[in-house]
Amino acid sequence: MRADLRPSRALTAGLAAAALAATTLAVTATPAAAADPLVGVGRAVTDDTQRGLFQVTAWTDAPQAKITRVSATVRQGDTVLVDIPTIPGVADPWNPSAPATTFRLPDAAVLKLVEDGGRIPALGTYAIDVTATDSLGNKQTRTDAGQLDFRLRPVLTFSLTKPTYADRSARPSGTLAGVQPGSGDVVPLTGETVSTERLTPARTSPQSAVTDSAGKFTGTPYPIAGPELAYASTFRATYTGDSATVHGTTEQFAQVYEWVPRKVAVTATADKKRALNGQTVTVTGRMTDPAAANAPVANHPVRVRLGGPRYGTGASAIVRTGADGRYTARLLAVSGGEAGGWTVDSPDSFLEFPTRSGALAIPLESRTDLTSIGLSADGRVTVSGTFRARYEANANFPTAQSIRLEQLVGGGWKAIAWGSVNSAYYNEFTASAASRGGYFRLRHLTTDQFAESSTGSFRLTRLDTRIVSLNAGPEPVAKGGYVTVTGGLQHYADFNWRAYANAPVVLQFQPRGSTTWKQMATGRSNASGNVSLKAKVTGDGTWRIRHYGDAKHFNTPASAGGDYVDMR
């Protein structure tokens, strides 16, 4: 289309008047003569994509007949502008051998403006008359079978500017043009109103923008908040035209999914790597601008979280940087349900820096419980128990935890044995150590997974026993004779060694050159604690008396000396 033919307000008004006149003439045109009722002609419909083309349906009810010719004229009032002697039929793709009932002006015969080498004088609407003839000579002419919509088809381009740190808004813009029938030329549409609106996340009222001489338009900016960026704001631009030169509706959509943040540098340090429940964790750091010689960035938000990258757990706080770019966040550690660690990131999508993080263990509160305790007669304390999280059911810990068995020694607790426990073995453990009794407790020291816990102290006691005045005789003893071994059995009670009456004792013999003791006789101490046991001699060796403790007494010491007797 020539530049002087591009739509203007004056041209638009003139063409509108011409179109109205053409319409009036079409309405008052002389009706066609009576037609053969056997042939029918449907509506002539303009192709909306290429408005220099149209198609029409035609059929015949005559037996064994088919439509053999369709012709048409395009007129303005009584003036025929284009005479189309033949319009080809369109074969049915599902039944190619069937007679055609749809007839379409071919692409090669597209109607064009005079300036483009065609016969249409101007943009507008024109009447279409159609004549159909069948193979038996039956004929039908339909006046005003349709209207050729020979107006510009509107098309839109639409985009949004990227929000920036300095300008946190998206401005809609684009171009509005018309596609000319026939030639397909695209011309800008000037002075037309384009409507823009935001659809998501919150719909707004439509706003209007008017195109300039190049068909370009720019709308009112829409504020874009940080959280909206994560859910892509969606916008729509719409134009509807219905004039002598332009007809149709077009719309385009655009989304905000990119923005231009300000990039800064942030440091972060925590004051501890392990925090117990209720302790304060202090995270400090500084924000600077690498693009400005690392100058401090003041009054900007920083988000600090406990609980690592698993957002939604643990404490969090948003603090702002001071004039020197420094920030401080103090958060309470709460055990249970946290992934561990700390992170520092930006709550403002327009302020960008790499997430900073560090290790932070927040141990679960634990409990250590006793299930059994005992102090054996041979001087060994054995304690069993269970270990688990205090407030979290079935907390798994495949990494074993160490439980200490401690004894009160000299006013302080001393570890004398250790037990190992993990959740794979029903949280149970046992610890054992040599001991002559006293005060004991079980204790778990703090680890990254569990905080400290201990049982209450408990006391285990037995009375020490001993053999005094041991003597074996006679010495020497004749072969096959008997030896008599005497001594006194005592236990330590009420802070003194006292006679231990009516207690079981055994007589043991260790042959010369052997390390094994053999039991030779048994007996009991008398009311004064005295013991006298007799056995047959089988050779040279050492004799001793031992008491094996009961529920209240230790064994007499195995290392206590015996009395050596020769056999002759």
Instruction: Classify the helix fraction into a percent range.
Output: under 10%
**Low-pLDDT residue spans:** 1-35
Q: Which structural class is indicated by helix and strand composition?
A: mainly beta
Residue fraction in strands: over 45%
Q: State the separation between the terminal residues, measured CA to CA.
A: 146 Å
Number of strands: 45
Counting DSSP H or I runs of 4 or more residues, the number of helices is: 2
Described by the principal axes of the CA atoms, the overall outline is elongated
For the CA atoms, what is the radius of gyration?
54 Å
Major β-sheet, in short? 5 strands, antiparallel
Summarize the model shown.
The protein is mainly beta.
Summary keywords:
568 residues, mainly beta, five-stranded antiparallel β-sheet, 48% strand, elongated
